[in-house]
Amino acid sequence: xxxxxxxxxxxxxxxxxxxxxxxxxxxxxxxxxxxxxxxxxxxxxxxxxxxxxxxxxxxxxxxxxxxxxxxxxxxxxxxxxxxxxxxxxxxxxxxxxxxxxxxxxxxxxxxxxxxxxxxxxxxxxxxxxxxxxxxxxxxxxxxxxxxxxxxxxxxxxxxxxxxxxxxxxxxxxxxxxxxxxxxxxxxxxxxxxxxxxxxxxxxxxxxxxxxxxxxxxxxxxxxxxxxxxxxxxxxxxxxxxxxxxxxxxxxxxxxxxxxxxxxxx
Length: 265
What we know:
With 265 residues, the protein is of the alpha/beta class. The protein contains 14 helices and 6 strands. The protein is elongated, with a radius of gyration of 27 Å.
């Protein structure tokens, strides 16, 4: 039976906040060399995103090359205001979702100063039931641990969560839509399926279903009768430990089930 969605998790930039990236704004306003921008945003800034470095201290050495003549605080003010472009219709929708009884959460890759700006100046503190920032978690999307922490902290099932994100990697992440399949089947989950579930896979399955359905299809080809297969699963993998029914062997490579005898070819 499908689970009901109880929690919606929104991303910030590209979803709730639209417009060009700050690097594009900076390049346009100050004719900044792209290589200098890339050097900062792909190195030091990444440390800031997970709380391993302070943005003010990290960006200070780059301000001259950015053509900025003011203070670090003034630069951050320029930065955050340049990115203050909310999708107002979507924010209104978020409010309606909360009024309808759904839990609405923000999960975003942000360093701590911009996180504070979002809470205080964009109204996010009042708009969401909970806010998860990479700088506070010490993790960033699409890391498995980021999603695992959020879902665990919310105390919800992964199947009850719906993600809104502009990055497909985050939608296809372990909590969102990951599905792990191992063709091998046995009396217990394989090592791979155990690992996948521990690392956030939303669904797992082994090859037992393939075994049963292939057997049924073969039976149909040879006997002209298509067996009902749903009842075969609990026979091959009983929910409670104990002796298996007659005609069923428990070893991985020798499992079999007796289908009804056909009256004709």
